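Below is the data:
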Amino acid sequence: MEVSNSVDGHDKEEGKLRTKHKGKHDKPKPWDDESIDHWKIDKFDPSWNEGGMLEVSSFSTLFPQYREKYLQEAWPIVRGALKQFDISCELNLVEGSMTVSTTRKTRDPYIIVKARDLIKLLSRSVPAPQAIKILDDEMQCDIIKIGSLIRNKERFVKRRQHLLGPNSSTLKAIEILTGCYVLIQGNTVAAMGSFKGLKQVRRIVEDCIQNKLHPIYHIRTLMMRRELEKVPELANESWDRFLPKFKKKNVKQKKVKSKEKKPYTPFPPPQQPSKIDLQLESGEYFLTDSKKSEKKWLEKQEKQAEKTAENKRKRDEAFIPPKEPAKQDANKSGDDKNDVAAIAMSVKKKAKELKKQKAAENIDPESYIVAPEKRSSKKSRAS
């Protein structure tokens, strides 16, 4: 007990000496300076990794046959760009593949991932000068697979065309607003740019192919966002009230009527008569302007008269009395009498049958039994 008391007393003495106050460690630090950009990615310095790579890392990808000739021509440029980062590359025309791998001189551990992205972009028809830009630290890439988002081939081609627009105007607008390079080739969309821009491009592409929203609406939204960024007063406010809200409208498409195929004939159809031919045939061509105007006026009057007569007929339909049921004909009444007589005869027959049945039921069985014969007196006397 004495030890514990002594310990408690020691802690109390220390507690009095230690003064706790808020913000004790809030001291000015050298990196808390507004001039320093904490989001800046510093360029790799080989002195950070003097030992090099412990293992060899390699990536390979296949390319389509139509890219073989171009890659063969552009491969010296690709090899020269990768040689600066001590990455070896190989183009195999037999297998149709490209391979990149690290060497003993490689110092940057992430450059092999950038080299992998480079050969992916080259296989997706991105030009070599543009694809080499992916080796920069600030440049990223994204390959969006759009072929599996929709099954119908015709719809897929139509919606992919929406991304391009007339004379590739929609694609140019997307590139300007997102700050990315976009290439639509086959079943993929290759994009290069910042992370923010790539996110916007992926959303635009997927919404277009899945028929959620047309790219033009995304372009409008991005244009408004660009204008709102220029206003410093709205930097810390929500922009939802300024941005447009587009609702999807389901428009029913008209069913295309299938036309019946006419039998094939090698002769062309007869030429239809022109308007002048019809006027010559009817004699209207030779009429004067006054006669023509008079004829038109008479036709107009006839149409008006037909229309008024039709309207009058519709109005008078409400006052027409309903038709009364027709009286029964004499032939019909004769037929009815014959039917009654037939019914009476059938009833009489049934009555006779009933009487016969009852008579059969009331038969006395003794009347059918033969009685014993009485002997005659003459025979008895003879005996």
User: Anything to note?
Assistant: The first strand starts at residue 58 and ends at 62.
